[in-house]
Amino acid sequence: MKASAHIFLGANSGEGFYALYDQLLTARLDDLLILKGGPGCGKSTLMRSVAESLSAAGEETILIHCSGDPDSLDGVIFPALRTALVDGTAPHVLEPVYAISGERYLDLTRFYDIEGVKAQRGAVVARTDEYRAAYREAYHALRAANAVSAYRRSQVRAVSELDRLSRRAEGIARRELRGAAAQPGSVQRAFLGGQTHKGALCRFDTVDALCPRVYVLCDNYGLGAQMLESLCAAAVRAGEPVLLCPDPDRPERAQHLLIPRRGLAFVTSTDRLPYPGKPYRRIRIDALAEGTLTRAQKGTLRFCARIERALRREATDALAHAKQAHDALEAIYHPFVDFDGVSALAAQEAQRLLSRR
What we know:
By secondary structure, the protein is of the alpha/beta class. It has helices spanning 23-26, 43-56, 114-118, 121-157, 163-176, 204-210, 225-237, 285-290, 295-333, 339-354; strands at 5-8, 10-13, 16-19, 31-36, 62-65, 73-78, 83-87, 103-107, 187-189, 193-196, 199-202, 213-218, 242-246, 254-259, 264-269, 281-284. The chain has two domains: 5-112 and 337-354, no CATH class; 160-292, no CATH class. A six-stranded mixed sheet has the order 1-5-6-7-4-8. A six-stranded mixed sheet has the order 9-13-14-15-12-16, sandwiched between helices. The model has no long low-confidence stretch (mean pLDDT 93).
């Protein structure tokens, strides 16, 4: 299946699960299908099946990956059809705002053998409690890692000449985003990756697919967020629809900025998640920051970086435990799910969407 973009609308952060799914409710889609159903009932399977059918028919397809398991889907968007399917169960609960006229439920609980599942109650409770406890462990480790990261950032920020970054952003905006449009542009937010059971990842392939010119911000200390916000504001003034990607570790801060109509992106590259492509321009924020540090300060920051890496490994291990427990939970449900019925529903929905073209 060929997708035009791979994004995440949820992230595992130090404050717990952080969701951006409400944007789908405010996007005024013509049809938002909110899937309801418990573990193992075929939500991801149904979405992938519909996406494969519409992608094969030439429809632009944006895949929304699961923050805990990036190989699983939490949603799929078909922009040209103004339609999306999304998992609306916890932790990213969605409820219709304009019921039926804009959004509607797709109930997959109908495919459960209810009595069969009830007979497995003890196993269901044990595995559910296990994976929830593992997520709590992951969030504790991420919270500690973020505290260390914040300390590192504060130490570097205190001695950095950040006004030079502001001037650099103004120069780029004048060159790339000059002028003001009659109507301002718009901002959508999505994560390009985050902390998963496989470790930290970023879908830089989405950047390369949408934006051939990439400015790379070499920024291990998180000092470039203000620069990205400034460039985002300039793009909106120029009338551009932009995708602003928050930092999954600290979702209140910007990490990447994509301006697809201009084929232009600004991405953060770190030692942990380096940008693998060939940049159009490179902005060495680290060099600016580290040039004013003493040898002792650099040693302290290296020590803090080692602690942070160890804490993030603990988070990855906990998320891997959660994934194993959730897989075991789904395996309990699977014998009691009518997957033929799920497949038939997927085919029905795909045909309905294609008939609207």
